[in-house]
From TrEMBL:
Record domain Disulphide bond isomerase DsbC/G N-terminal: where: 99-158
SUPFAM superfamilies linked to this entry: DsbC/DsbG N-terminal domain-like, Thioredoxin-like
Residue ranges that the Swiss-Prot or TrEMBL entry lists as coiled coil: none
InterPro entries: DiS-bond_isomerase_DsbC/G_N (IPR018950), DiS-bond_isomerase_DsbC/G_N_sf (IPR009094), Thiol:disulfide_interchange (IPR051470), Thioredoxin-like_sf (IPR036249)
GO cellular component, one term: periplasmic space
PANTHER family listed in its UniProt record: THIOL:DISULFIDE INTERCHANGE PROTEIN DSBC-RELATED, THIOL:DISULFIDE INTERCHANGE PROTEIN DSBG
Protein name (record): Thiol:disulfide interchange protein DsbG
Gene this chain is encoded by: dsbG
Gene3D superfamilies named in the record: Disulphide bond isomerase, DsbC/G, N-terminal, Glutaredoxin
Pfam family, one: DsbC_N
Length: 272
């Protein structure tokens, strides 16, 4: 997905790029399309080709265009973007073999083709965030959905799905988890990092905390605890109070080491 972003600047901020990437999108400023050094007449034919589009945008002047905010220019840009989206979608749909195209109608998002043995053509897809492999027969009239195995019983589809879908998704999820507000215990040099979801009043979370302490002290693991509120009606308030404390790590240590007896003070504005 390509998102055109309104604003008199040259590149999206890191925060905007991160948000867009989360939904498989990229951001391009309006003035990257109508830059001072990029003739308007050069844009339209280039939009029909993805490679030509990338080349065009690379050549675009990074400095803001003084006239791109005008109403007429804005309408032209929106028209060009509509043309770009329809041309890209049409090209992708046209390139798909008919049996594979039919899979899209069943809700499978087709991602890319891949090499497959046995004379078939592989296509990688995704359905409700689950990886799907499709195999187009040599006559290109039939498609088989499922895993492919070799004579030794090895799953040949699994690696493609893992490499292209699950591993990148897992890395992105890990980045979000480690960036979320929480309580870090242990050394940055620990051999293993563990993300824990814990309720302030969860007895199993508390038991895990006690059992993890020796491994934290010898630098076998470090933990990042993300607090949730599910056990009691006031769990969320106490979780918020821990995170809002001057020293959240100490408040959490006191709560867990006392088996829930030393609770953080709830202030009047502690969110529920």
């Amino acid at each position: 997905m390509l998102c055109c972003l309104q604003g008199n600047w040259s590149q999206p901020s890191a925060e905007i790029e991160q948000f867009l990437r989360r939904y498989g999108a990229s951001g391009i400023p309006f003035n990257a399309i109508f830059g001072p050094s990029l003739p308007q007449g050069h844009v339209l034919p280039s939009l029909l080709s993805k490679d030509a589009l990338l080349t065009t945008l690379t050549k675009a002047n990074a400095s803001p265009s003084p006239d791109f905010t005008g109403g007429k220019i804005m309408k032209k840009i929106l028209s060009l973007l509509t043309l770009l989206m329809s041309a890209t979608t049409q090209a992708q749909t046209t390139d798909l073999p008919e049996p594979v195209k039919q899979m899209e109608k069943q809700g499978i998002e087709i991602i890319k083709p891949f090499s497959a043995p046995g004379g078939v053509e592989g296509w990688l897809g995704k359905y409700q965030d689950m990886g799907v492999t499709l195999y187009l027969t040599p006559d290109k009239k039939h498609v088989i959905s499922g895993y492919m195995y070799d004579a030794q019983g090895n799953n040949l589809s699994e690696k493609t799905i893992n490499d292209e879908i699950y591993i990148p998704a897992g890395r992105e999820m890990w980045k979000q988890l480690t960036a979320a507000p929480g309580i870090t215990e242990g050394s940055a040099d620990a051999k293993c990092q563990v993300v824990v979801f814990a309720d302030p009043f969860c007895p199993y979370c508390n038991k895990f905390w006690h059992q993890a302490q020796p491994f934290i002290k010898d630098k076998s693991i470090s933990t990042k605890t993300l607090l949730v509120g599910v056990i009691r009606p006031d769990s969320a308030q106490y979780a918020a109070a821990v995170l809002a404390a001057k020293d959240p790590a100490k408040v959490w240590y006191d709560l867990e080491s006392s088996d829930g007896k030393i609770k953080p003070a709830l202030k009047g504005n502690t969110p529920a």
